[in-house]
Amino acid sequence: MAITHIHSASLYVNDPDRAIDFYANKLGFELRQDEAFSYGEDAPTVRWIEVAPPGAQTAIILIKGYAGWSEDQVGKFGGISFTVEDTYATCVQLKERGVEFTEDPNPQPWGIQAQIKDSEGNVLVMVGN
């Protein structure tokens, strides 16, 4: 038995539809799953939403209403870093799509890094050449 890859990471969101729009239309991610579920008969219905870069193994789960979600958890540092081929070109494209940057591209020992904010205020990192 061995762990082979990371299936998913999670981000807390306030508006799942707005978050889907951001990840699908601004970042170009695939919407892999959007299913309603409930923990029991009297429990509220919530959604399991997975988005991911095209072809990626690892997905992001957009969470509202379960898994420790609370409004004060939304809009924090997401702890997620994306690999990009060309940080500068990617940033130009994302700025044209209206993505908000919290850090413009800058050289770091690990590559050219930039930070963006998603529709819910979560901060995400991009690193590339």
Describe this structure in words.
- This protein has 129 residues and is an alpha/beta fold.
- The chain has a single domain, classed as 2,3-Dihydroxybiphenyl 1,2-Dioxygenase, domain 1, CATH 3.10.180.10.
- Helices cover 16% and strands 43% of the residues.
- It has helices at 16-26, 87-96, and strands at residues 8-12, 30-37, 46-52, 59-63, 77-84, 100-108, 111-117, 123-128.
- The strands form two sheets. A four-stranded mixed β-sheet has the order 1-4-3-2, with helices on one face.
- A hairpin with an 8-residue loop joins strand 2 (30-37) and strand 3 (46-52).
- The longest helix is centred in the N-terminal third of the chain and has 11 residues, at 16-26.
- The chain is globular.
Keywords:
four-stranded mixed β-sheet, single chain, 43% strand, 129 residues, 2,3-Dihydroxybiphenyl 1,2-Dioxygenase, domain 1, 8 strands, alpha/beta, globular
Short description:
By secondary structure, the chain is an alpha/beta fold.
The residue-averaged pLDDT reads 95
CATH topology-level name: 2,3-Dihydroxybiphenyl 1,2-Dioxygenase, domain 1
CATH architecture: Roll
> In percent terms, what proportion of residues is strand?
35-45%
CATH class: Alpha Beta
**Widest beta sheet: strand line-up:** 1-4-3-2
Number of helices: 2
Report the uncertain regions.
none
Shape annotation = globular
Terminal CA distance = 35 Å
How many strand elements? Answer: 8
What profile does the largest beta sheet have? 4 strands, mixed
